[in-house]
Design goal:
Strand order of the largest sheet: 2-5-1-6
Distance between the termini: 12 Å
Helix content: 25-40%
Radius of gyration: 18 Å
Number of helices: 4
Largest sheet: 4 strands, antiparallel
Structural class: alpha+beta
Strand content: 25-35%
Order of helices and strands: EHHEHHEEEE
């Protein structure tokens, strides 16, 4: 069947993971959990997103069925611990050894990107393919986004996001 690589261009928000997590309270915990679920780490070519995804899945298993407002401080403490004690992977290519490392910093100090409005998206199917794919769109669309939902979250920045996902 092969594999699929997806590239997307979006407008969204950018915030330090630490700035987001430290703002968790009983009033915004549901929104912040949603931001964490739909966001991903600004990660050029490291392995931060693999660990980030694992933490988010574990968080959903641990906190998915409880009343978040009553447990917002527990969630905050859990996420601070997970994001400060986890970073990237060191992967050796010769003998397939994968070891967690904080050599390039921890997730708590990384930027989270959250797409709000998708501009372009393209999938590429196949096995290991070497070539160029492209897509275009006339610049006849509104580049503004509605960020009212995120007004109570401080320290966000509006950014253009280029994301690539393989799997």
């Amino acid at each position: 069947m092969g594999r699929c690589e997806t590239a997307t261009a979006s407008i969204g928000i950018k915030i330090l993971v630490s700035d987001l997590i430290l703002q968790i309270n009983e009033n915004n915990v549901t929104l912040i959990k949603e931001i964490l679920y739909y966001g991903f780490i600004e990660d050029d070519n490291d392995y931060f997103n693999e660990i980030y995804s694992r933490i988010i899945c574990e968080t959903e298993r641990t906190f998915g069925n409880i009343e978040l407002q009553k447990n917002s401080l527990d969630l905050k403490d859990y996420l601070i611990n997970e994001f400060t004690n986890n970073g990237s992977y060191h992967k050796s290519h010769g003998n397939s050894i994968v070891k967690p490392t904080l050599d390039k910093g921890c997730l708590f100090d990384k930027y989270l990107l959250v797409p709000v409005k998708r501009l372009l998206s393209m999938d590429r199917w196949g096995y290991d393919r070497d070539a160029t794919n492209s897509i275009s769109r006339p610049i006849d669309f509104d580049l503004s986004i509605n960020t009212d939902k995120y007004n109570e979250i401080e320290k966000t920045e509006i950014v253009l996001i280029l994301g690539q996902h393989a799997g």
